[in-house]
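Quick start: what a row looks like.
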Amino acid sequence: MGSDRSVIPFGDAYAGKRVLVTGHTGFKGSWLSEWLLALGADVIGLALEPTTTPALFDQLGLAARMRHAAGDIRDLEAVSRVLEETAPDFVFHLAAQPLVRLSYDIPVETYATNVMGTVHVMEALRRHAARSSKPVAAVMITTDKCYENREWVHSYREEDPMGGYDPYSSSKGAAEIAIAAYRRSYFSAADSSVRLASVRAGNVIGGGDWALDRIVPDCVKALESKQPIPVRNKVATRPWQHVLEPLSGYLTVAAALAGAQDVPFAAPAYCTAFNFGPSLSSNRTVADLVQEILRHWPGEWIDQSDPRAVHEAKLLNLATDKAFHYLGWKPAWTFEETIAETVAWYRESSHCRQPADFQTLTLRQIAEYTARARELHIGWAGRLSV
């Protein structure tokens, strides 16, 4: 059984492999780095220092367990240097300015980071490919907000037009256009050593997110201080999903690009864009999300809607049938399970005193999520033992 890749998550694609993660000090990057370490990868990170206190990166003690390179993706030479020095097998590009409301205040920095930062990672890959024939599977992470949002009820597909009302959303749409251009211009040949995909996820939640201006951290901070939760956009509908859902998709795409995952098509077929979102029943309003959180952590909320607030989308759903047919991927946790696991992480983390405690809590949730995916016969999780 030990030699059968189909019984091991992601076909054992990451064991002993070198993986570069940009943005590893952020919320999603920290979860991804922890999961990759558990899968046996040699993980290298390139990012700025954490921007929040606390920060999941620090809570998990990741700086001591992976190669941590402090750097800015707006610096092409710094990105190229890290790529050349590490010669990774896989690249996951998560580094970004990730906040819609903040993008209104710092539009130039948002575009510089999200558009040119992405271009710099791809340009570093292009330079690396000119010097080395070693295969690299690269996954560029953008967002569901990259689409031209028409506020319609049906879901967006990967072929729908890019766009964006605000600086953040439009920067991600522009990044997707740049990704497609680099893929066609430099990485499309059959003999290219770089295989490039982009991935778009919905509203990601989970334990360890401490960012400003995000609803779950706002809830946690209010509940911990026994204050009402301020809710500024209660009717907005979002595709809420646990952070492990899109990460499982990203890992599956990269393994498919590398030819290490049992998938229906040859590796080049995965050099494209993929959506990763929850089931339609998880498309809920902000008010629904808050009420579900309060089922697990008693408290109250207050409506702080502001008619003068900057524009934020009200309807946004993703179609994920492409991921299902190409990758055998589908969400594993329901909306209710997602909220329960998220609240459980925050409540249990209040008893954690050292990085090993946070690691145990986080790895337990990864194990529970993997076990649930295996029960549902989701391909990346491997087969159930007989």
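That is the whole record. The chain has a mean pLDDT of 94. The longest strand covers residues 194-201.
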